[in-house]
Amino acid sequence: MIGCDCEVCISPDKKDKRLRPSIMVQSKETTIVVDTTPDFRYQMLRENVKKVDAILFTHPHKDHIAGLDDVRAFNFFYNPVMQVYANSLTEEAIKREFSYAFSDKKYPGVPELNLNTIMNDPFMIGDIPVIPVLVWHLKMPVLGFRFGKFTYITDANRIEDSEKEKIKGSEVLVLNALRKQHHISHFTLGEAIDIVQELKVPVSYFTHISHQLGKHAEIEAELPEGIHLAYDGLKIMV
Ligand SMILES: [Zn+2]
Ligand SMILES: [Zn+2]
Asked: Which protein residues have their CB within 5 A of the ion that is ligand 2?
């Protein structure tokens, strides 16, 4: 957190250096990035990512869309038009906040985007099957995504029973857990643990962690078996 000198913000542990939440999902043929955070450019440089086939969005909050302009580097080198998958709420925000990418007379070098509207039905991106999972971020609908045995859910504080069914059977669940204290639109650590245990997912990682949660090593040591804190650069094979 800018300007903060709490024990997490000054911690020398690399796992306490958290950028904004995003994941990359990769098969042999296809690479998808879920959300383009304000840190997207640095995340792509850090991981030396050369190709991205599609961007998938969870919801229109700034910390999940702000980095979209930087897909233009992928337009130059790999993918002349980036495929973007989002629900209509997120599409509206993208068109508003990146209006220059959708104008009739485009300035050269703006990102080239093709918007694909998604709802709550399964679809394919290349060879990767995607099952949207609708969750609630206070009153905002947010899409989580299940890819085979891996499910990613961020920015939720409520999941309806019918959507929970879609998560069951996952081998790995990534779920948001902001901090220990109550928050109006994010699961707390305790609430996230309850969901993982209710859904009986064997391995879980918590993400979208605030500096208010505490130091990685200390919280990790408190968690039940099979539940971990995610950290930047974590790679999971499913
Ligand atoms: Zn949000
Ligand atoms: Zn967020």
From this structure: 63, 155
